[in-house]
Structures are given as C-alpha cells and as structure tokens.
Write a structure and sequence with these properties.
Elements (H helix, E strand, L loop, with lengths): L2 H11 L2 E5 L2 H12 L5 E4 L5 H9 L3 E4 L21 E4 L9 H11 L3 E4 L7 E2 L2 E2 L6 E5 L10 E5 L5 H11 L5 H17 L4 H11 L15 H8 L11 H4 L12 H16 L1 H11 L20 E4 L3 H10 L12 H4 L11 H9 E4 L4 H8 L10
Parallel strand pairs: 2-3, 2-4, 4-5, 5-8
Antiparallel strand pairs: 1-9, 6-7, 8-9, 10-11
Bound molecules: pyridoxal-5'-phosphate (PLP).
C-alpha cells in the first residue's frame, strides 16, 4: 500500500515510513503502540480538535503543558515538575518545538516522544528534518502538499514497522471509491481557488450548503454527556467509539485509499517542493510586521505552513482577510484544558496559551501579498508588551 509515497518520505527523512490515511489515524496507532491505556501524555493545549479525541480514544490522560508565547509550542523549561509517561509535540504552524530538549527529557525519563509533524513537512532544526527526533513522527499530506488526505508515520526503528502495519490493518475501514473520488475532487477544487478572488465565494457557498464542519466558535461541540458515556467503562475506547469527534473536517480519515489518491499525493508533494521559495519569501515578508510571533524571526530559513501573527481583534481581522480571498483556518481556541475541563489534566500556568489562542492569526505565507493590505493595518494585542 502506497510504496512509492513511503519511499519518497523515507528518502527525505532517512527513516522507515508507513502510509496511513490521515495524520490523526497515524497518531492514534502510534500512541496505542508506544503507550498503555491509563498512561499520561504531555501535550500542547493548542492543536486541532481531533488530536485531543485521538488521545482519549487511545485511553490516555492528556496532561496539558504550559506553552511559550514566543512560538505557541510546549515550554520545555516549565514541565520538569509535571508527571507524564510520554510526550506529543505539535510543531505549531511549522515552528519547531524544542525537540532536542524534549528528546533529552524523554530519554532521561525513559518515555516515548511522538512528534505531530502535520505542520512541519519542510521544517528542519540545525539541518535535520523535523520528525526524526522522537520514537516516531506523523506527517499530514493535506497541509503543505494540499493532498485530499493521507499521513505518514516515520519511525526510529524499522523493526516496529510490522506491528504498526498490523495495527493499521485492524483500524482501517473499507475503501469506497466514490468517497475517495469525491475527496479528490474537493481537494482539486480547493487547490484551484486558493489564492484567487474566488476563494471567498467558494467559502460562502460551502457555508450555505453546510459543507464546512459545524463549530461553536473555533472548536466542534464537545457534547460532554455523550462523550463521557462513550468514554465510560473501557480503558481504551478506540477510534470507532469516538468517531463523531475524531472525524472533524475529514469523515474518511480511517478509509483505505487507492492508487489515484497516491498519485495525487505524489504530485502535490512535488507542488509543495516547487512552492518552497515562494513560501520562504512570504515568511520573510510577514516577519517584517510588528505583530509577528517572535519565534518566526528565529526561523527565516524555514518554509512555514502558516505564519502566526498576534493581533488585537483577531476575528475581525480574519473576516476582513476572507473578503480578500484569504481564508484563515487552523485557529485552535480555546486551549484544550478550557475546552474540555475534567477530561484533561490542566496546565499549571495557562495564561500564555489563553493569550495566544485569543490573538493568533495564522497566515498562509503563499498568500502574503494578497493579505498584506489588511495585515499592515493590524494592531498588537494590549498584553503583547
Ligand atoms: C496540528 C495538527 N495535527 C494534526 C492534524 C490532523 O491532520 P489530518 O487531517 O491529516 O488527520 C491537524 C489538522 O488540521 C493539525 O492541524
């Protein structure tokens, strides 16, 4: 299954790679494989909704880490007193977590480090690709590359492949060619209108037709009572039991894929490589704005997935950008411990995550020129100092 795509990733990363139908699916099987139900997982409060539910589906207790307001990632200097049995990084928007310090911490404690590299396809740290520091990393093909869906697990030891492959087989759902084809058509349409004036009208049409995932603000409805009943009485609920939460924005996240999907993903990887210079130019232009997240300026050589600005009245700014055809996604608010209290071990110092979640405006660097007339007018949030 997907041998060409696996070989492509293996040659980039120098690691054994296993295809999965989505990043969330890959994270689930990685966490099931390297951790035991009931264990505690240190994770960022700022990530996609489905990642919290994948962690719960694996039977783990999310321990929410303090974050750094420089980059929105785990503040490694603030986790020494926390109790946890494994770590999940985020590499938010492609800005790398302090993976060297996290890897050292995990080695000292003898616990696994799993990297969520969904946003970090092109990120390197000291010349080494992100996704090669932990016991495993999981990439997402629908981010930089804009493939319909898909993910890749890169593992430290090739000996783990057979067991992961067996787990993959156990959790895959059957392939429906029509669903796969519809997903491809949607991805082609999205990739065609992005960066054009049509993007705004396409977004409005999708809203009117109810094609976008329903959300309360930026998160899907928690439906705490139903969720609690599904979590009760089983040490590891699994993906099927939490499917209504895990399937946010991609109802086919578990579906076996065919060769058409592989061909399109390979083509889109090439497009992402071709866009690398344009992405870098966008990062450097946006880094000149006064409201840029400070860590961006430390990574001007990185073709980030999104460039985080920290602005006052973020939602109004996002609405103005939409009218220019720049649709803002990947806002993760509120932080997980405020979103799902009781289901997480709350962060001992949540203020930075709350501030970041309220003010972050992630901008696609490929659309920097189109977004500029709005971005150049935005004010810094009061607390930014
Ligand atoms: C940080 C992060 N991790 C994981 C995912 C899930 O990726 P996929 O859609 O491939 O499951 C997303 C999706 O937006 C994400 O933003």
């Amino acid at each position: 299954m997907f041998a060409r795509l696996e070989a492509e990733f293996a040659s980039r990363l120098g690691r054994e790679c296993l295809y999965v139908p989505s990043n969330r699916f890959g994270l689930f099987i990685a966490l099931r494989y390297w951790m035991k139900p009931g264990q505690r997982l240190l994770m960022s409060p700022l990530s996609a909704d489905e990642i919290l539910f994948v962690v719960l589906a694996a039977g783990l207790r999310p321990v929410i880490a303090p974050i750094s307001a420089r980059n929105g990632n785990i503040d490694v200097s603030a986790v020494a007193d926390l109790r946890f049995d494994g770590v999940l990084t985020t590499h938010l928007y492609g800005l790398p977590d302090d993976v060297v310090a996290l890897a050292r911490l995990c080695a000292e404690r003898g616990i696994p480090l799993v990297e969520d590299a969904a946003h970090a396809l092109h990120t390197t740290v000291a010349g080494v690709p992100v996704g090669t520091n932990g016991i495993a990393a999981v990439f997402s093909l629908s981010k930089h590359a804009g493939a319909a869906q898909g993910g890749m697990i890169a593992m430290a030891s090739p000996e783990d492949r057979a067991a992961l492959e067996e787990l993959r087989g156990r959790w895959l759902s059957p392939r429906y060619a029509v669903a796969e084809f519809a997903g491809l058509v949607k991805a082609v349409a999205r990739n065609t209108v992005v960066g054009t004036g049509l993007a705004y009208y396409t977004w409005r049409l999708a809203e009117a037709l109810n094609l976008n995932e329903r959300r309360n603000g930026y998160r899907i409805a928690l439906r705490r009572d139903v969720l609690a009943s599904r979590l009760a009485g089983t040490p590891h609920p699994g993906m099927a039991v939490l499917d209504p939460w895990i399937h946010a924005d991609n109802h086919n996240y578990r579906m076996r894929q065919g060769s058409l999907a592989e061909g399109y993903a390979l083509r889109r990887m090439q497009v992402a490589d071709d866009q690398r210079e344009q992405r870098l130019r966008g990062v450097r232009r946006l880094a000149g704005l006064k409201n840029i997240a400070p860590a961006v300026r430390d990574h001007l050589d990185q073709p980030l997935f999104r460039v985080p600005l920290l602005v006052q009245d973020r939602d109004h700014a996002a609405a103005r950008l939409r009218r220019l055809g720049v649709i803002t996604g990947h806002i993760y608010a509120p932080p997980f411990d405020d979103y799902a209290p009781g289901l997480t071990e709350p962060s001992p110092s949540p203020d930075a995550a709350r501030w970041w979640a309220r003010h972050v405006l992630p901008v696609d660097p490929l659309l920097a020129d189109r977004a500029w007339p709005v971005l150049a007018t935005l004010s810094a949030p009061p607390e930014a100092g």
